[in-house]
Design goal:
GO terms for molecular function: 3 iron, 4 sulfur cluster binding; metal ion binding. The chain is of the alpha+beta class. Helix content is 24%, strand content 19%. Bound molecules: FE3-S4 cluster.
């Protein structure tokens, strides 16, 4: 699984980082999220799906 955060959509709601803190990191500058790495470790995939569903801006996508 690969994960992306659309920087145009992300508004810094932080729910993704609460759901999957080992996958998403928040910028100290604007609070926006980005994946630590594009490839999601298998043991983190359920958390990432939860993060996708929780983002109110629909900023996270997985393939
Ligand atoms: Fe951004 Fe959505 Fe996370 S708005 S900080 S990707 S919950």
């Amino acid at each position: 699984m690969k994960v992306r955060v659309d920087p145009e959509r992300c508004q810094g709601h932080t729910l993704c980082a609460m759901r999957a803190p080992e996958v998403f990191e928040l910028s100290d500058i604007d609070g926006h999220s980005s994946p630590v790495a594009e490839e999601v470790p298998e043991e983190q995939q359920d958390r990432v799906i939860d993060a996708v569903r929780s983002c109110p801006e629909r900023a996270i996508s997985v393939v």
